[in-house]
Design goal:
This protein is of the alpha/beta class. It is built from three helices and eight strands. α1 packs antiparallel against α3.
Amino acid sequence: MRPRPAWLLLTVLAMALFTTLGFWQWNRGQHKLALAAQFETGGKEAALPLGSRDIATLPRFTYVRLRGEYDTKHQFLLDNMSDSGRPGYQVLTPLHLEDGRVLLVNRGWLQFTGYRDRLPDIAFSATGSTEIRGRLDQLPAAGLASGRAAPALQGSWPRLTTFPQLAELAAALGLPALQPRILLLDADAPSGYTRRWQPPGLSPDRHIAYAVQWWAFAALALILLVVLNRGKRT
C-alpha cells in the first residue's frame, strides 16, 4: 500500500486534530468530575459561619451562613438562564453584611414572562437584618464574549443584564466593589424562586463521551486511508 502523499498528509493532520480534540474533551470531563466532587463535598458539611472571613479565600461551593440586610430596591435579572430547557432569569439581590461588605445573593430562577418589555415583579419584603445560608459560587459565565450585556447605569429597577462581570454590577449599584463571590441561596430559604443548584456546564459524562467520539473519528480516518488504498500497486 502506497497512498498518495497528499492523502497521507491529510490523514495525519485529521488524526492529529481529532486526537487533540479528544484529549481536550477528556480533560474537560476530568475537570467537571473534580468540580462535581467539590460541589458534593461543599453541601455535606455544616454551614460555616462567615463572620469576618475573607470570601475570596474560601473554596468554591463552601456552604456558609451569614447575616445581613437585603437591598430589595436594587435587584438584577440575569437573562438567558434556563431551567429544564425553559428560558428565564436568575434573580440577584444585594445583601449588606453587618461589617459593611456587600454580597450578591442568587435567589433562584423564574420563567420568562413572554414579553421583553415587561420584566417580572421580583419585589419582596425584607426589613432589618436576617440570617441566610447558601453556597459560595461565581457569576455565570458566557461561552462567547458577544453574549454579554452589562446592566444599565441609570434607569428603573430591576435591571436586566446578560452574563455581567462583578465590576459592572457594582458600577450599576454605585458601589466601589462587590464581594468576589455570589451566594446561591439555600433551597429551603424564604423569598426565593426555583433553586436546583448544580455544577455549571455539561456533565462529566457528556465530555467523556465527546472525547471517545473524537478518538473514534481519528481511528476512522486511519481505517479509511487503509481501505481506500488497498490493492493499489505502483
